Amino acid sequence: DAGVTQSPTHLIKTRGQQVTLRCSPKSGHDTVSWYQQALGQGPQFIFQYYEEEERQRGNFPDRFSGHQFPNYSSELNVNALLLGDSALYLCASSLDEAGSAFEQFFGPGTRLTVL
Amino acid sequence: GDSVTQMEGPVTLSEEAFLTINCTYTATGYPSLFWYVQYPGEGLQLLLKATKADDKGSNKGFEATYRKETTSFHLEKGSVQVSDSAVYFCAQGARNEKLTFGTGTRLTIIP
């Protein structure tokens, strides 16, 4: 079982550019959530995808958008990058199953640096 | 809204010392509670979980009990090792909803 995988590992962009981050969920999982973790902080929820639809969204601007594909993999897109978007972006997957503890399994993250 | 407050760090202990990291939560419903650990340069790993009041989660010598009356989920370990050095995050979440994390507690164990 490969677990949750993310690509790329690191990324350097300049202000105003656009970026796409990718995530493959753990085998058997159908739900993908994205989090932003600034240096020295806890992860902050961006949004969650289930059945190719955005199910829940955190307090992030519309510059942050996402997509989920039929194979449950997901992308996070950020437009018009700002310096403050520099962070570790974490993808987490889970299984929407009644009676579960709703565990989310995290990938290693993508470190985005905006210059 | 839902929130998690955890003990501020950093915490430095000697090897074999007893560890407690405090965590309290506020929630409108009945969330599951989690402790995640993050090693340098890595993502988050689930350490332990509890789904209802009085449940005790345990893993690798770490324990935490879901206390509804005090809205707490304190992490404990009887004898820490150097390899336990990491950042620990307390979190809450419910089915089909986001996880809400605390700010993290950096733990350093000295040989």
Give a written overview of the molecule.
The complex is a heterodimer of chains A (115) and B (111). Chain A is mostly beta strands. Chain A is built from no helices and eleven strands. Chain A has strands at 5-7, 10-13, 19-24, 31-37, 44-50, 53-57, 64-68, 74-78, 87-94, 105-106, 110-114. In chain A, a hairpin with a 6-residue loop joins strand 4 and strand 5 (44-50). Chain A is globular and about 45 Å long. Chain B is an all-beta fold. Chain B is built from no helices and twelve strands. In chain B, the strands form three sheets. In chain B, strands 2, 5, 6, 10, 11 and 12 form a six-stranded mixed beta sheet that branches. In chain B, strand 5 (32-38) and strand 6 form a beta hairpin. The A-B interface holds A 4, 31, 33, 35, 40-45, 48, 50, 55-56, 58, 90, 92, 96, 98, 100-109 and B 4, 32, 34, 36, 42-46, 49, 51, 89, 91, 93-104.
Shape type of chain A: globular
Note the total helix count of chain B. 0
Distance, first to last CA of chain A: 36 Å
Order of H and E elements of chain A: EEEEEEEEEEE
Classify the secondary structure makeup of chain B into a structural class: mainly beta
Query: Which percent bin holds the helix content of chain B?
Result: under 10%
Element-level helix/strand string of chain B: EEEEEEEEEEEE
Report mean pLDDT of chain A, rounded to a whole number: 93
Q: How much strand content do the residues of chain A show?
A: over 45%
Helix content of chain A: under 10%
Q: What is the tally of helical segments of chain A?
A: 0
The backbone outline of chain B, from C-alpha atoms, is: globular
Low-confidence segments of chain B, given as residue ranges, are: none
**Major sheet of chain B:** 6 strands, mixed
